[in-house]
Automatic annotation (TrEMBL):
UniProt-listed InterPro entries: ASHA1/2-like_C, START-like_dom_sf
Top-level taxon in the UniProt lineage: Bacteria
Protein name according to UniProt: Activator of Hsp90 ATPase homologue 1/2-like C-terminal domain-containing protein
Domain Activator of Hsp90 ATPase homologue 1/2-like C-terminal: 21-126
CDD domains assigned to the protein according to its UniProt record, in alphabetical order: SRPBCC_CalC_Aha1-like
Family in the record: Belongs to the AHA1 family.
Amino acid sequence: MDHQSSNSQLPDIVQKAQLHAPIQKVWAAVATSEGLASWFMPNDMEPVLGREFHLEAGPFGRPQCKITEVEPTERLSFNWGKDWTLTFEVMEQGGGTAFTLIHSGWVSGGATEFGQAHSEVAKGWPADGQVS
């Protein structure tokens, strides 16, 4: 029997924000190594389909990541470690840019490579569902 067959998928974590910035500026903040490092984690990411890279996650090491989807100025998605997928969506809206971050791959009873329960890691996201 598969180890995870007794575990169930948990809902994705979805964070949304309306930003008063042009879409190109928001895209640069999610689709460049420098932009992503400025608000998330240091990394050696390039927005190229299939490109492998690392996030510098401090005490949680250097998880291996891989770009799985790139739609310039619209969507970037990558696998994060063994379990998760992070997706950034941007869309022009109301004179600014709508930004959505989707963190998927949560499993009840699941744990990270460092033995942290998924339920504990998920507590790191803002409870109000808003990116600051």
